[in-house]
Automatic annotation (TrEMBL):
Protein's recorded name: Prolyl oligopeptidase family protein
Compositional bias ranges of the Low complexity kind: 287-296
Disordered: region residues: 1-31, 275-335
Species annotation: Actinomadura hallensis
InterPro entries to which the protein is assigned, alphabetical: AB_hydrolase_fold (IPR029058)
Transmembrane segments: none
Length: 335
């Protein structure tokens, strides 16, 4: 573990995987409950590493530790989603997701030791493949989770592969065993495991995403709501799949899409994990937001609704989350 003072990122390993931990530095908010830690995983597309994800979506305004944890057994250069048609790639995907979920309890124990944090529920977040890991860890209840946010999560590996097949004109070479492993990681099928858990969930997609089309985000939202998983909100941006420029392995200044996503994630976690001067009762604020969303049912097939901040809300009757100006510079220069 490294980090010279309380305002610098901490680097270490948890359950054998490298992490970057950003300390709580928000000056206008403090934790409102027992959740003092958010764990976020990167994807196979940029940002591909914990370091790159921390630079892309630092969530500086959230007054808890944000820990960006590398996926297990991924190469330093990453693996793009376009390779999903190869058996080796889908097996690497399945291994990364399965082991990330399995290792989470040990990883949290290591993080709490390194950062001096007490026991308690955590927030989870993830991009692409990391988003799949975050939701499956929540569904399988491997650790107590208070809220989860997913950015362009791979909802169903088989459907993602089908989209690549149509786009490339190539055919997948999956073995039967690899196909079976992929099917077990379908997030829609995991929705039933979240029934009655009351875990607040945010889904973020891209209107131009060809890996995880917006309809995948809509379908997952509907499945979670159908099973009574808890308050679920969804929004899309006019963006593709990636949240960083290639190669997406190093800390770099965030691109425009990442800044927008970071603003929505920051607001989401602040509303649920923080108390601020302008919102002294976060529980009441969350209840009001949930009631408003529940009162307005979405229309299947309705076009995304543009907002002034560049987001496209899939919750057609409810306002998209507000995107604030970035609260501070990216931590890229600190890595």
């Amino acid at each position: 573990m490294s980090g010279d003072d309380t305002h610098q990122p901490v680097h270490g390993t948890a359950a054998g995987d490298p992490y970057v931990a950003l300390p709580p530095t928000a000056v206008d908010a403090s934790p409102s409950g027992p959740t003092r830690l958010i764990v976020a995983w990167p994807g196979f597309d940029p940002p591909r590493t914990a370091m790159a994800l921390a630079a892309a979506i630092p969530m500086t305004g959230v007054p808890v530790w944000r820990v960006y944890l590398d996926l297990p057994r991924t190469s330093p250069g990453g693996l793009e989603s376009g390779a999903i048609l190869q058996t080796e790639a889908i097996e690497a995907y399945c291994t990364a997701v399965e082991e990330a979920v399995e290792r989470l309890p040990v990883a949290l124990a290591d993080l709490r030791r390194d950062l001096g944090l007490p026991e308690g529920p955590v927030g989870l977040a993830g991009f692409s493949v990391g988003g799949a890991a975050a939701l499956l860890a929540t569904a399988r209840n491997v650790v107590p989770v208070s809220t989860v946010a997913l950015v362009a999560p791979v909802v169903a590996p088989s459907r993602a592969a089908r989209a690549v097949e149509k786009r490339s004109g190539m055919h997948r070479s999956w073995t039967a065993e690899a196909a079976g492993r992929a099917d077990r990681l379908d997030l829609g099928a995991a929705a039933a495991d979240l029934a009655g858990r009351d875990v607040a969930t945010l889904l973020i997609g891209g209107a131009k995403d060809r890996v995880v089309p917006a309809r995948e985000i809509t379908g997952l939202r509907d499945a979670l709501r159908e099973h009574g998983a808890g308050p679920v909100e969804a929004t899309t941006f006019r963006m593709g799949h990636a949240l960083a420029a290639e190669p997406g392995t190093e800390a770099r200044p965030p691109i425009t899409e990442a800044v927008r996503v970071d603003g929505v994630l920051t607001d989401w976690f602040r509303e649920r994990l923080a108390v601020t001067a302008d919102a002294p009762d976060p529980q009441a604020r969350q209840s009001e937001t949930t009631s408003s969303a529940a009162a307005s049912e979405d229309t299947d097939g309705a076009p995304a609704k543009p907002a002034d901040d560049g987001t496209w809300s899939l919750d057609t009757g409810a306002a998209a989350p507000r995107t604030p100006e970035p609260r501070s510079a990216s931590p890229a220069g600190s890595h």
